[in-house]
Amino acid sequence: MRITKLAAAAVAVTMAAAPVMADLVFPSLSYRTGPYAANGIPFADGYEDYFTLVNARDGGIGGVPARVVKCETGYNTEKGVECYESTKGEGALVYQPLSTGITYQLIPKATADGIPVHSMGYGRTSAANGKVFSNIFNYPANYWNGASLAVNHILDENGGDIKGKKIALLYHNSAYGKEPIRTLEELAKKHGYDLSLLAVDHPGQEQKSQWLQIRREKPDYVLMWGWGVMNQVAIQEAANIRFPMDNFIGVWWSGSEVDVVPAGEGANGYKALAMHAVGDDFPVFDDLRKYVVDAGTAAGAGDQLGTVLYNRGMYAAMLAVEAAKTAQALHGVAEINPAQMRDGMEALEMTEAKMAALGMPGFGPEFTVTCENHGGPGLGAVQQWNATDKTWSLISDYGPSDMEVIGKLIMEDSSAFAAENNISESCN
Amino acid sequence: MFYREAGEFKTTYAKDQQTFPIALDRWGYFITLALAFLAVPFFINDYWANAVVLPFLIYVIAALGLNILTGYCGQVSLGTGGFMAVGAYASYKLMTAFPDLNIVFVILLSGGITALVGMLFGLPSLRIKGFYLAVATLAAQFFLVWLFNKVPWFYNYSASGQISAPERTLFGQAVTGANAVPAISYLFCLVFVVVLAWAARNLTRGANGRKWMAIRDMDIAAEIIGVNPLKTKLTAFGVSSFYIGVSGALLFAVYLGAAEVGEAFGINKSFLVLFMIIIGGLGSIFGSFAGAAFMVLMPVLLKNIMVGQFGFPTDIAAHFEFVIVGGLIVVFLIVEPHGLAMLWRIAKEKLRLWPFPH
Amino acid sequence: MSAGFYFGVEVFLNGLMAGVMYSLVALGFVLIFKASGIFNYAQGVMALFAALTLVGFQSGQIPFAHLINAVFGTELHHFGWKMPTILALIFTLMVMILFAFLVEKFILKHLVNQEPIILFMATIGLAYFMEGFGDLMWGSEIKKLDIGIPQGGNFWLEEKTATLGGDGFYGFYLDNLDIWATVCAIILVASLVVFSQYTKTGRALRAVADDHQAALSVGISLRAIWVIVWSIAGFVALIAGIMWGSKSGVQFSLSLIALKALPVLMLGGFTSIPGAIIGGLIIGVGEKMFEFLIGAPFLGGATENWFAYMLALLFLVFRPQGLFGEKIIERV
Q: Which residues form the Leucine-binding protein domain (chain A) (predicted)?
């Protein structure tokens, strides 16, 4: 009896030690704790659930099971470094750092280690220049696209002429919040609107000054680059001063259920940018319910399906899986390594047919990634909150952003980085 | 029995005044140093270096600095994070403005700049005491963080305000940047730690240290016996800030490689370092090491046990981490308010007799 | 008068209101500091914990549901009932009293006569503990707190004053929630004063605040007093948690309001209840006016966080014990 137990234990140990190369490892650097936990939980659930689904339904990616290694960062940079170091040895294929700080941290580290990083709609915007940032991807859209998309939306609403309109940017006073400023300034020159900047210091619980200023200056539109508690307070304050919610547009990190629900009815009509679809009206959710939630293997409580951030996590996982498939096809091996994964991400092509086949028709924009452009085409949509139904819905198609302006800024910033760090621009 | 002072006869002043007068201590110290310099570099890998050892070494320097100010001179400071930010941004500006400047000088100069800033913010300490001073140093913390966030010159006008350390080499080996080998970064930090700890030890034993302690124990009495409070407090702020600046520069350049001021040098850093010196022991060099080890190792250890061994969900493990670390801090303060250094002293005391007590 | 002047007045009024919100947090600090000489950093976390507990009771959440589910594989979330607000308030208060009792029993009792910094550190340890514990107990998602306090601008006032400043001005803006907070603060302070002046326990409290040893020697139980003080601080934390939580939803960041209270304390003095109120008002007005006049137009904004501390520092240079603090007497 004891011997069999020991033998079983030994087998278990070898089993545990052996599959170093027998599965595809996708680390999930989640933040289910700390000040941003409310945002981190649904994203991590979506990310992890999709891999569970792929394993249960398709038997893995190209026949190789995917394994998610979880590590809790609490949105803390130093813990993120620890997570990176502890998971990279397991053969991690791609990192989703999920925080601006950790992304900046990993840009040089992961590049040196040859592991790709996918910072989807966050992180360093100029990483879209793949000639400088060989291992960093930020498709399908980045912050500068976001800024331009918001301006485009305003242009649409005003018949293309916003000369003399006043636009205010309410931003989190950090690297993240400052990202859109330069783009908005460039666009202001082009379209002739007045831009005013309102910084909110971390954490942003007290925004009376900023909102009194908005009330005084009466901008036509307010854009928001907010995060965490700042979002909820800003939306509440906007409702308090009776700012027209239709003219209040948040970036995609300021547009999830948790941001608008605390403000109740007042948040009705609030808009946010979107890089993927919302709601659970897609066939893939039936699969998720069948294979993951009902099977009891869901990462969370299974009640987040269809929320904005769950969908985003799922979308990120889907893109990772598709990139892995591309890599497998490209290199003709099933058990790809990080370098091959990188090639797969660089050759990634998302088409409508592909998404429909996955049960996600129209879930995200169509795009192709190239070596020169790791950021995709910068397509995005606008979503609006309905407080009565408690649902988000897309109110526009995936529209283009002003790549003429943004492209130039990306080249500028990335070449400054290249010069500072002695990187020679190349495409391999 | 195992730890003994008996049988040591010092025949010269030099012998009497050496850093470790007791032979056993001395040997322990040399063996530790030998291990740290000769053995560890061959075993260290990326994980150990980046998750445990580098942060430990860097926080030791910060803890030494704060211990000089708080433990030896009695001025409680919560501005550590802000001063570390000064060190980090100074090193960034120096590295990018003078690409040929040797990295060692960059770090030392950053410390020097921080020392000046620290002395400036130390001025109110002449009027304000105790907790009021602690809260007043928060003004430095918030102001410095705001400043580095606001003025684009500090981050070379980059779009987002993040700073990243370019690669710098020492003797042909990369010390900063992504291509640095863990063993090299480790040795680089270790040299700083050893030199600064040695300096701290001797500073606190000498005239300056005695002045600091006099001010700590009773400032009015110290003034009466001829200690100049202005000079003494400001030297404490200066020296302490130098250490903290060096540690901030190392944290940014060697360990993190990229940083954003609000996140990397927020108020939590100030509390973390204060924790280290209190858990370790106020007014003790060994305590700075022990406290830093405790606060760096504990969370990693807890995480690896709970998630790695018992397979807890990561979020529950993180919550428990908070509960356990918080609980341990309280327990420690109750059991031994003078910190790990005191426990170490008690252990040595016990070892004198053990295993034959009477 | 020009519109600019009235806007200035508006900012001033809002600064006063914000100051009251800070004072609500600062009050809890002062109570505990006075009675036990402990600088209780956990006050902010107590506000978070109280608010979490209140919402938890209100919505019938099962405590530790996430942990239980993870260990036993169950699917628990809610009891399925909703508790009336008043009942939930009472239960929360009971939890806070229990908390005070436990803190006394497991921490304070063992730390008598320690140096202030050790006590301070112990409360930071306690804050860590409570953060983890609160999240374990009630989960870390954002919860909507609604106990019927009206929110949003006061439109009556806005319309009545709209004609004051000409075309560019459209009436004073005041948040209903802030007005309520002010009313609550007034009631709170009044009842605290009545309690400490006219009841036996209150007198005992003041005796302990003045001199521990003397209080002990006339037969006042220090430990009982501590439990009472921490309970009152828990109650104040609950009020602060409700006010701040109604604004932003109840979430982790609520614990950070402690940082807003520190400059208030510094300025008002650690030992004075009126100091906490007046300090709050000065800080609130000061930081809002600075942001309005200098910060936003010239310095790029977001100056409030550090300016509050700088302002307090400025006051301290002239009065090292805060405006209303007890004079620090040093004997050699």
A: 29-386
Q: How far apart are CA B291 and CA B61, in angstroms?
A: 11
Mark yes or no for CB contact A100/B160 under 8 Å: yes
- Tokens 């070892």 sit on residue: B351
Within a domain: A43: yes
Q: Are residues A157 and A136 in the same domain?
A: no
Amino acid sitting at position A393: S
Total count of domains within chain A: 2
Assess if residue A14 is contained within a domain.
no
C-alpha A270: how far from its chain's center? 20
Contacts of C126 (CB under 8 A, 6+ apart): B326, B330, C41, C42, C45, C103, C107
- What single-letter amino acid sits at C275? G
The backbone torsions φ and ψ at residue C270, rounded to the nearest 5 degrees and listed phi first, read -70, -15
Facing C248 at nearest CB: one of A216, A233, A266? A233
**pLDDT score for A2:** 40
Within a domain: residue A231? Answer: yes
Residue A302 clears pLDDT 80, i.e. is over it: no
- Identify residues of B whose CB sits under 8 angstroms from chain A CBs: 46-47, 50-51, 55, 96, 146, 149-150, 156, 158-162, 164, 166-167, 177-179, 255-260, 262-264, 266, 299-300, 303, 307, 313-315, 317-319, 322
Interface residue C310 vs chain B (CB under 8 A): yes
Q: Are residues A321 and A243 in the same domain?
A: no
Q: Both A135 and A163 in a single domain?
A: no
Which residue among B164, B266, B314 sits closest to A30, beta carbon to beta carbon? Answer: B314
Low-confidence winner among A152-166, B7-21, C183-197 (lowest mean pLDDT):
B7-21
Structure confidence by residue, pLDDT tens digits, C14-26:
999 889 989 989 9
Same domain, A134 and A148: no
Pairwise CB contact (< 8 Å): A124 & B314: no
* Residue contact A261–C249, C-beta within 8 A: yes
Query: Between chains, do A112 and B179 touch, taking CB under 8 Å as contact?
Result: yes
Amino acid at B237: F
- Interface mutation vs chain C, best among B75, B153, B333, most C CBs within 10 Å: B333
B46–A85: do the CB atoms touch at under 8 Å?
Answer: yes
Q: What is residue B353's three-state secondary structure?
A: helix
Which pLDDT band holds residue A20 (cuts at 50, 70, 90)?
very low
The ipTM estimated for the assembled molecules is: 0.87
Q: What is the pLDDT of residues C223-270, one digit of tens each?
A: 899 899 999 999 999 999 999 888 888 888 888 888 888 889 888 888
- The answer to whether position A6 is within a domain reads no
The answer to whether residue A16 scores a pLDDT higher than 70 is: no
Domain boundary assignment for chain B: 23-266
Tell me the C-alpha distance between A234 and A211, whole Å.
Answer: 8
Distances (CA, A) of C16 to B83, C6, C10, C67, C278: 33, 15, 10, 43, 10
Query: Does A244 lie in the same domain as A148?
Result: yes
Digit-coded pLDDT (tens) for B61-112 = 999 999 999 999 989 899 999 999 999 999 999 998 888 889 999 999 999 9
Average pLDDT over residues A42-66: 91
Distance of CA A47 to the CA centre of its chain: 11
Model pTM score = 0.91
Chain C residues within 8 A (CB-CB) of chain A? Answer: 7, 10-11, 14, 17-18, 21, 69, 73, 75, 77, 135, 140-142, 144-146, 151-153, 173, 175, 244, 247-249, 251-254, 256-257, 260, 287-288, 291-292, 295-296, 300-302, 304-305
Question: d(Cα A222, Cα A244) in Å, to the nearest integer?
Answer: 10
Both A269 and A396 in a single domain? yes
Where a domain ends, among A353, A373, A393?
A373
Whether C107 and chain B come into contact, CB under 8 Å, resolves to yes
Instruction: Answer yes or no: do A413 and B159 touch at CB < 8 A.
Output: yes
Range of the domain at A353: 19-141+281-373
Q: Which residues contact B340 (CB under 8 A, 6 or more apart)?
A: B279, B280, B281, B287, B290, B291, B294, B332
